[in-house]
Amino acid sequence: MKQSGIVALMRHALAPGTGDPARFDLGDCSTQRNLDARERAQALRTGATLCPASVTFDAVWTSQWCRSRDTAALIDMGPVQEKPPLNSFFAGRGHRTAQTDATLDLITKMPADSRLLIVTHQVNFTALTGLGVASDEIIVTWRTPGGHEPVGRYVIAP
Questions:
Q1: Mind listing the pLDDT tens digit for each residue in 149-158?
Q2: Residue 116 contacts by C-beta under 8 Å, 6 or more apart in sequence?
Q3: CATH homologous superfamily for 6-13+26-155?
Q4: CA 86 from centroid of its chain's CA atoms
Q5: What are the boundaries of each domain within the chain?
Q6: Distance CA 70, CA 62 (A)
């Protein structure tokens, strides 16, 4: 993760359940699946492992979902920027192709030697890499012309 030019994709810490409630409101965390105390501790442990290892990022991006934003803030790897294309599109809440294309475009606009951390959802991982991922798992990728080539997987705080 210390090499320049990587994109580290991290799935938010475990948020009990699947999907979001029918009354989901992006601006109201009480209507979403959220991190509980155990999952907050999981995200803190991840950050506490990365920092002493001298892992740094030039940018930290997250979806607008509370569980992703909270995970990104708790790992404390730099200022967090919300990027709507990173929002979940599970169960028809977004548009897979449009969001994936927009995410790839955002990444392409970053300097080639930058290190980027993206905290997002399972569906985005699969769309970007073709892989599944566990909660709080990080997949490190190299940028390629058509997407990303995975080069490492890390679960710091299972």
A1: 889 998 875 5
A2: 6, 7, 8, 57, 58, 59, 60, 61, 107, 110
A3: Phosphoglycerate mutase-like (3.40.50.1240)
A4: 8
A5: 6-13+26-155
A6: 9
